[in-house]
Specification:
The chain is of the alpha/beta class. The chain has two domains: 8-92, Winged helix-like DNA-binding domain superfamily/Winged helix DNA-binding domain (Arc Repressor Mutant, subunit A), CATH 1.10.10.10; 99-253, Rossmann fold. The chain is built from eleven helices and seven strands. The strands form two sheets. It has a four-stranded parallel beta sheet, with helices on one face. Helix 2 crosses helix 4 (53-65), helix 3 packs across helix 4 and helix 6 crosses helix 8. The longest helix is centred in the middle third of the chain and has 25 residues, at 132-156. The protein is globular, with a radius of gyration of 22 Å. The N and C termini lie far apart (59 Å).
């Protein structure tokens, strides 16, 4: 070790990865949901999740360190207020399903150095080539964030005069779904690639909004919609397109 210089930043980064990974494991196991009714011991929680106590207990302490669980009297674990709002299944603001997305993105990020060395991506998202299973996992992971965006938009902006929303490259359709849930007079149209459109349609039907939300299978880069809308939303779309394709998409939306 160089005298006077400590590897503090290096070690902070090296060990800082473990709290996010603990969170990911907790989301994958859905262990925050059984805690919605109050604190539980490790044994009781393991039983509720059909897991071995000795395997689960270290993760619970890791989640305490990650500030997503708290340890209360009697060696019981409880959700933090934030975890109770966002990581309990069926809560309106639930984000727990994003674990599939995090697994995908973090796994890809681990190959960044290899991609730079090879001068080509080692992991690539090509929605036209991905399997239905991988597409479903990817967009399910994005769905909770898309719903949150839709709810935010309708509270941050005045949607009252609007009647027709265009959700461009809407993925799971979460933005359009949440916006229509919050605004009863709003109708929505989701444009997605033919291979992704069925995922959005399934989500729309699950939300019981098929009478107000339409899903169109089309490529916005190739052609404009054949009708007009009051407002268009492009979430996580422009940044995944090349400059020329992004310009064509914006022209077609405009």
């Amino acid at each position: 070790m160089q005298p006077g210089i400590k590897p503090a930043t290096i070690l902070r980064h090296a060990y800082g990865i473990y709290p996010p990974l603990a969170m990911l494991a907790g989301m994958q196991l859905d262990l925050f949901t059984p805690l919605k009714d109050g604190p539980m011991t490790a044994a009781a929680l393991a039983k509720a999740l059909s897991l071995r106590t000795d395997k689960l207990r270290p993760l619970l302490y890791a989640l305490v360190h990650a500030e997503l669980l708290t340890l209360v009297e009697g060696h019981r674990f409880a959700n933090t207020p934030e975890a109770d709002v966002y990581l309990v299944r069926d809560r309106e603001a639930y984000l727990g399903s994003a674990h599939e997305l995090y697994s995908d993105l973090w796994g890809a990020a681990l190959t960044a150095g290899l991609s730079i060395r090879a001068n080509r991506p080692q992991v690539k998202h090509d929605f036209t080539e991905m399997s239905e299973e991988k597409l479903g996992a990817f967009f399910r992971g994005l769905h909770s964030g898309a719903l949150a965006t839709g709810r935010y938009l309708t509270t941050a902006y005045n949607f009252a005069p609007l009647r027709n929303l265009l959700d461009v490259g809407g993925g799971s359709g979460g933005v359009c779904i949440a916006a229509c849930q919050n605004c009863r007079d709003l109708r929505g149209t989701i444009i997605e690639l033919p291979k992704v459109a069925p995922i959005a349609l399934a989500m729309v039907r699950e939300a019981k909004l098929a009478n107000r939300v339409e899903v169109l299978a089309a490529d916005i880069v190739e052609r404009a919609p054949d009708r007009q809308f009051d407002v268009a939303v492009l979430r996580n779309l422009i940044q995944v397109l090349g400059p020329d394709a992004a310009c064509r998409a914006l022209r077609n939306v405009g």
